[in-house]
Design a protein that fits this description.
Strand content: under 5%
Order of helices and strands: HHHHEEEHHEHHHHH
Strand order of the largest sheet: 1-4
GO molecular function: lyase activity
Helix content: 55-70%
Number of domains: 1
Distance between the termini: 56 Å
Keywords: Lyase, Membrane, Transmembrane, Transmembrane helix
EC number: 4.2.1.161
Protein name: Bisanhydrobacterioruberin hydratase
Structural class: mainly alpha
Radius of gyration: 19 Å
């Protein structure tokens, strides 16, 4: 079956103004303009400030009201997600919404199971609240943290694979491997700044910067579920067309490289640093690290 160019193969978003007066196209255009106007601030300044703040929190350099402030953390994450949200939003139709809804239920469910039983990630617990917590155990914003990691990997692999991405088996396997590689960067950094901790267990904790091997086996499972969900939700050609038209769509991956690459470097986690640099090379190869147009708001401020 040929893949349609829109979201979900002919099940794309409705056009124009809805019955309640909401003009989706106008909203999407304004969001694009907002992200484009503040591109450098969102993709570079926010993650670097975030890295400094998280390290300062972990080292006890910030007073209690500021250290690990959950609203500050959540706000920063949401801002860094804006380029991806703006890029994907025009492609979200009924099929994509249904797929994302099911994936949300899976994410909450597997996280609760993981915290309560140690399966499939290993025994762990959140050391600081990352915003409001569901049942006091799982961040309500979990999809905001998890989904973009997978979707960024999926989009980057589409660009890097080129015509080879036409094979569903190839693009799924390569993207799953990329998602696990992303967690090889994320988890050591998150453990270093005390976001979460893997508890002592009779089987012992693995030697990868305090992260057990079971965590990555669990990520293979969750990455597979999430990558398949995105592959069902969005038509490949529709994503490629949007990537072509939306130069900032992968800026959230730029933020990831800067934020977690910096944190891992500060703590001497050199394997994660090399992996983060690898993603940076991939972004450079696809012209996604190009901020030559600058951040016009920032430029105006400097000129004044």
């Amino acid at each position: 079956m040929a893949e349609a160019s829109g979201a979900g193969g002919g099940d794309g978003p409705s056009d124009g103004e809805g019955g309640d007066g909401f003009d989706r196209r106008r909203f999407e255009a304004r969001l694009d303009a907002l992200v484009r106007e503040h591109r450098f601030t969102i993709a570079v300044v926010f993650p670097l400030v975030g890295a400094v703040t998280l390290v300062a929190s972990a080292e006890g350099w910030l007073p209690d009201p500021l250290a690990y402030n959950p609203l500050f953390v959540l706000f920063g994450v949401l801002v860094m997600r804006l380029p991806l949200v703006a890029g994907v939003l025009p492609l979200v139709g009924r099929r994509a919404a249904a797929s994302l809804g099911l994936l949300t239920l899976y994410a909450y469910g597997i996280e609760l199971v993981g915290i309560r039983t140690g399966w499939p990630y290993g025994y762990f617990e959140y050391e600081v609240p990352l915003g409001p917590m569901l049942f006091g155990e799982v961040p309500v914003a979990l999809p905001v943290f998890f989904f973009p990691l997978v979707l960024n990997a999926y989009l980057l692999m589409l660009l890097l694979l080129g015509s080879r991405a036409r094979s569903r088996v190839v693009r799924l396997l390569v993207t799953i491997a990329a998602v696990v590689a992303i967690d090889l960067v994320l988890d050591p950094g998150a453990v270093a700044v005390d976001f979460w901790e893997y508890a002592a267990h009779p089987d012992g904790v693995g030697g990868y910067y305090g992260v057990p091997a079971s965590n990555y086996l669990g990520w293979v499972l969750s990455a597979t579920v999430a990558v398949v969900a995105f592959d069902v939700a969005f038509a490949r050609q529709g994503l490629l067309d949007r990537l072509e038209a939306c130069e900032f769509m992968l800026d959230d991956m730029v933020s990831f490289v800067l934020l977690w690459g910096s944190i891992n470097a500060l703590y001497g986690n050199w394997i994660p640093v090399v992996l983060a640099a690898g993603f940076g090379v991939g972004l450079l190869a696809t012209d996604r690290f190009d901020f030559s147009v600058g951040d016009s708001a920032l430029v105006r401020a400097v000129q004044r």
